[in-house]
């Protein structure tokens, strides 16, 4: 096993450095989730002025999603479309980007559009990245190119974390002087995790 030690150590080092920004995003987002009230006091959500415009005809496509995409293409707005509500004379949906939430409301009788925006800030953007993409509203999820790319990147980070865990165990096992302390650390981690499971269940 020792002949593989230099290669595994190099991969462990550079893969760890490569994914460190992503791990930082996920770590900060957990603090945002756990301390939402403090964040609201520190950096409140900022509502931007509402825009009202009129289009030269509201496009109606073969599906709700394609209709919403056609509308934002006419408006020059980019982002992830979510929760589309359509009836005979009204279409509404949010368009999401990290740190920015845009609400589109369309009156199909008059072709008028109401656009309201909220700046949520960079810290809340990390929580958006943490939860997207997900299985909630999976039928629509991933309709923007940004989120498709982010999905691949998030999957890649998970695979690299699994690789780092495996390589870390390999490197630890190759260092005989560290085995006893390492076993104690693993045992403590298993004990705390088991205690948490008992409290939950």
Characteristics of this structure?
elongated; 6 helices; 201 residues; 7-stranded antiparallel sheet; alpha+beta; TATA-Binding Protein; 7 strands; 17% strand
Outline:
With 201 residues, the protein is of the alpha+beta class. It has six helices and seven strands; from the N terminus they run ααββαβββββααα.
Instruction: Figure out the total of helices.
Output: 6
User: What is the number of strand segments?
Assistant: 7
Using the CA coordinates, give the radius of gyration.
24 Å
Low-pLDDT ranges: none
**In the CATH classification, which architecture of the largest domain applies?**
2-Layer Sandwich
Spell the H/E element sequence: HHEEHEEEEEHHH
Number of domains: 2
Helix content: 55-70%
Instruction: State the end-to-end CA separation.
Output: 41 Å
Task: Describe the main β-sheet briefly.
Answer: 7 strands, antiparallel
**For this entry, what is the oligomeric state of its chains?**
single chain
- Quickly name the level 1 CATH class of the largest domain: Alpha Beta
Overall geometric form: elongated
């Amino acid at each position: 096993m020792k002949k593989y030690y230099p290669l595994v150590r190099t991969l462990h080092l550079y893969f760890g450095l490569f994914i460190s920004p992503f791990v930082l995003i996920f770590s900060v987002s957990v603090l945002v989730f756990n301390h939402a009230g403090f964040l609201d006091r520190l950096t409140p959500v900022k509502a931007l002025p509402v825009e009202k415009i009129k289009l030269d005809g509201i496009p109606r496509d073969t599906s709700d999603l394609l209709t919403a995409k056609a509308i934002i293409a006419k408006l020059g707005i980019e982002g992830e479309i979510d929760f589309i509500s359509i009836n005979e004379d009204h279409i509404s949906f949010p368009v999401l980007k990290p740190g920015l939430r845009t609400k589109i409301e369309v009156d199909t009788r008059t072709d008028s559009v109401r656009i309201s925006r909220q700046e949520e800030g960079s810290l809340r953007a990390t929580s958006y990245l943490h939860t997207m993409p997900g299985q909630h509203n999976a039928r629509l999820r991933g309709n923007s190119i940004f989120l498709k790319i982010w999905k691949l990147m998030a999957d890649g980070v998970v695979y690299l974390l699994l690789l780092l865990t495996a390589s870390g165990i390999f490197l630890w096992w190759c260092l005989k002087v560290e085995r006893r302390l390492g076993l104690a650390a693993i045992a403590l981690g298993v004990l705390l995790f088991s205690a948490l499971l008992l409290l939950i269940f």
